[in-house]
Design brief:
About 1% of the residues have low confidence. 44% of the residues are buried. The protein has three domains: 45 residues, no CATH class; 132 residues, Response regulator (Rossmann fold, 3-Layer(aba) Sandwich), CATH 3.40.50; 128 residues, Rossmann fold, CATH 3.40.50. It has twelve helices and twelve strands. A six-stranded parallel sheet has the order 2-1-3-4-5-11, with helices on both faces. A six-stranded mixed sheet has the order 7-6-8-9-10-12, sandwiched between helices. It has 334 residues and is α/β, with parallel strands linked by helices. 44% of the residues lie in helices and 16% in strands. The structure holds alpha-D-ribofuranose. The site of alpha-D-ribofuranose has 11 residues, from strand 9.
């Protein structure tokens, strides 16, 4: 009886993909014991590869899955554009999925992309959750590489490209302190988002390092959107502050509108520093000082890791990129 991949899969409890990858001597995350069992059974039952079936399992589709949390945010749009342009030149196509920072959609799209047979997955997670591991491990078990970018979560089992959010946010607040500000507010992103949580941590550390009190009344929970910066800005501007650290530029734009409606001049009455250093930040009437995440550098590192994955490497690499402050006109010295 000619045994099949399916037979060996049932005998070993491993997926057909994993069995095929073991028989093809590919890198796959499986115990040595299981690997030897597959090889032993294949020999015992005189398994002969069915090249058609094998092609179905290890066939490359020349497509890459890219999942981002907010397609309307130019930070993610620029990264998506950079990745698409580069992989198109390599003969690959991209499936772009937008989750609106929603974990359920993220998991739905990841499973859909796996079913479509993409050759690798690049994802910016919506929130920090162990639920991300399930779909990431499915990709890894299928012998497909995963690159997480921009946001991290404890125990992350795959490669990562991220900015040093803690240092970047600490430096932003210390920049305000060096300019003489002592009463500094903060508008965070979604608090269950890694980058937002770490930037708030950096805000607090900078104040404490400089001997200043952390006043919970001056911390407002935003959502990384224009409206979040506007709404929380109206509230924060009623407090006795001279400066604000806004955890992304889209919310800083909303804060600008709140300041205008509150009759406050930037930077005369209130100084503002953002995070992302988006394209538009230098074009505002009062150009925004912002912590720069180098989108080209982030894209370049994602593509470098993707190249290694497409060449067959499943080595996990964590790349942390430094930030710097793009100094403009939204912060006054007092
Ligand atoms: O602007 C959206 C934010 O979410 C960016 O700062 C990026 O780092 C992501 O975490």
């Amino acid at each position: 009886m000619a045994v099949t991949l399916k037979f060996l899969s049932e005998k070993t409890g491993l997926s057909i993909t994993t069995v095929s990858l073991i028989l093809n001597n590919k890198n796959v995350r499986v115990s040595e014991k299981k690997r030897e069992l597959v090889l032993k059974l294949a020999k015992k039952y005189n398994y002969v590869p069915n090249f058609l079936a094998q092609g179905l399992v290890t066939k490359k589709t020349k497509t890459i899955g890219l999942i981002i949390p907010d397609i309307t945010n130019i930070f993610f749009a620029e990264i998506a554009k950079n990745i698409e342009q580069k992989i198109n030149s390599r003969g690959y196509s991209i499936f772009l999925c937008n989750t609106n920072d929603n974990l359920t959609d993220e998991i739905k799209y990841a499973n859909l992309l796996l079913a479509k047979g993409v050759d690798a997955l690049i994802v910016c997670p919506a929130i920090e959750s162990k639920d991300n591991f399930e779909y990431i491990n499915k990709f890894i078990n299928a012998g497909k590489g995963v690159i997480v970018f921009d946001r991290y979560f404890e125990g992350n089992p795959c490669s990562l490209v991220i900015s040093d959010n803690l240092k970047g946010s600490e430096e932003a607040v210390k920049y305000l302190i060096k300019k003489g500000h002592r009463k500094i507010g903060c508008i965070t992103g979604p608090i269950n988002s890694y980058s937002s949580r770490i930037r708030l941590e950096g805000y607090k550390r900078a104040l404490i390092d400089e001997g200043l009190k952390v006043d919970k009344e001056l911390i407002k929970i935003g959502n990384y959107q224009f409206h979040g910066g506007y709404q929380q800005g109206l509230d924060l501007l009623k407090k006795d502050i001279t400066a604000v650290f806004v955890c992304n530029d889209l919310m800083a734009y909303g804060f600008y509108r709140a300041a205008k409606e509150s009759g406050k001049k930037i930077p005369k009455d209130i100084s503002v520093i953002g995070f992302d250093d988006l394209l538009f930040s230098g074009m505002l009437d009062v150009p925004l000082t912002s912590v720069s995440q180098n989108v080209d550098e982030i894209s370049h590192n994602i593509l470098m890791l993707l190249e290694e994955i497409l060449e067959g490497s499943l080595e996990v690499k964590n790349i942390v990129l430094s930030t710097n402050i793009s100094e403009r006109q939204s912060v006054a010295t007092i």
